[in-house]
Every structure is written in C-alpha cells, then in structure tokens.
Task: structure prediction
Amino acid sequence: MKKTLVLIAGSAALAGAALSFSPGNGGLISVAHAAEGQHIPQAALRSSESGLKTAVFAGGCFWGLEAVFEHVAGVKKVVDGYAGGSKATANYERIGRGDTGHAESVKITYDPAKIRYDQLLRIFFSVAHDPTQVNQQLPDHGTQYRSMIVPQSNEQLRVAKTYIAQLDKAGVYSRPIATEIETAQPFYMAEEYHQNFAKKNPGHPYIVRWDAPKVSALKRIWPGVYSAKPSA
Result:
C-alpha cells in the first residue's frame, strides 16, 4: 500500500533525557496499537560502543521511524532509505511493488556516550513500530514494510539477538516478535522529498494519524531520552 504524498507546507515542532521501566500491566503486555507505544524492560545485555556509530532499523513507513528517532537525545542524524535489495531498484516507485527485497529503513547516527545501541533497540521495539506484525505496519502492507534490524557490527548483532530472545522469553508481547535480523545488507538513501518528512509536513494526514502519536508516545513513555528539538 503506497502512501499518498500530499505535501503541506510548514515546519513541525513535533515537540526533552536514561530509560526507566514501568511494569505496565504487571507482566504480560498485550500487543497495543503501535502508535500508542508500550513499556518494555531494558536489555539485559548492554552495548559498550564508543565514538559515533550508526544503526539501521526497518519497521513500516520510514517517515515514522525518522520522526521518532530524530527526537532521541544523542541521535545526531537520521536518514530515510532502503535496506537490502539492489541499487538499480532502490527507488520509491519501484519498491512499492514489494518484490525488490528492500525495506523502508532509517540509518541513525548516534553518540553511544549519550544513547546506547541497546537503548535505541528499546525505543524501536516499544514506540517506533509493532514488532509482531509480519510484512506490514498498521495501514501499510508488503515486504517493504517488514520489521528488520541490520546490525552494523558483531556487537550490535549480539545485542539485538539477545534482546529479542529476552523479550520473547519474558512474554512481553502477546504474539512472537517477527523482527528479522539481516546482516551485511546495503543501505540506499531515499529521495530527498522523504528526508525530514514529518518535520517539514506536520499537517500531512498520514503524519497526523500514524506518526505524530509515536513521537508523543516517546515523550510520554521514555521522557529521559526525549529531545524536543529534532536532530538535523
């Protein structure tokens, strides 16, 4: 399902930083509407990276992923793009067919001294998307909207695999986590009009309905890492 691009002029104040865990329903957390977010436990295995690093996540429309992570303190830059597939078909119109192997993704540049990789994963699994949906997110359907992590190092791979196993074992969700871990996948930057889309088009119907609530959930659930000022 392709999103209708109705550009609405204006800039967003989608409107600030340690994650704290609230047990929510006291154990089992049923799958909530992805835009509502939910509390989940912190990762038992913490990352220990240093220096600026990058993370690549896919989970539905990249507008929403970008909108969430650009409001995370310690994130320096978020780029919309396509993970997997080939360069020849890495364009919005072509991947919309769902048969190119790409996934709408974001590449996040972050400072591990301010936000660790395992904390980014916690945000990814709790407010950025619903990790139990297979080849879809909310109104969008197709393999290009699948939930996927593309580790950029062996440490990221180990932390991601361990965290998924931890969440599944704890029965955090009422359905199994469907997130795929795909190593050594290329990342292709998306067209310029997709970059900073929510920030540039806060009144776009898709942003208002599906993505702005995710940013609100980030602020509500993880106020310790929320930044009112989005990254560049």
